[in-house]
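--- STAGE predict ---
source: upstream dedup step, 1 unique chain passed
mode: sequence only
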Amino acid sequence: MKKGQIYILSVLIIGFLLFTIITPSNFIHQRVIDDDFEELSKNYQLESSKLINQLLNKEGTNEEVISDTFLNFTVLFTSYSKTKNPNFGLIYAFPYNGEVFVGNYADTDLTFVAGGSSTNHYLPGCFSEVSTSVSLYGISLSVPDIVPADYAQCIKSISYPSEDTIKFTIEGIEYDFQLKPSRSDIIIVSRENLQEDVKVFISD
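--- STAGE serialize ---
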């Protein structure tokens, strides 16, 4: 992808993220809880699904556009989420056009294996690599410069597996997921790592 195209994509994603943050109807409101973990998890699930659907319906979308655009969106969301909850991290996976895209923006490493394969893939967490945005409601918004190459070690694409499954292993705990080759449904595991507890949200 050319530098100019990456810049345009970054502008589009920034605008999209600002719109979803500022527009109240796009948020899932819940009663006040100890922190924003569940709200952030569900907001990411909702808005990332919207973004994927928009990309799939856009002419000229290919694997590189999908990967780079989703990377931009997730880095921006993680940057924003740190202002709400400094312990919130994300791991995602979704199939597209014969491939499965996986990203790790949590504070822990991920290993995963696709159905029908014995190959274990490893992704370090990029949580510490993402800078924090400065507040959003006061026009003064600090947005990190996003260079896809800076996060190359935290994303991976593999060929769609012979069996419609993928297994994540996070800190010794296994999570099994079903894949749908005809649909780019997003798998999300969000984590909040506290001193005494770890909260985990798994998408439906």
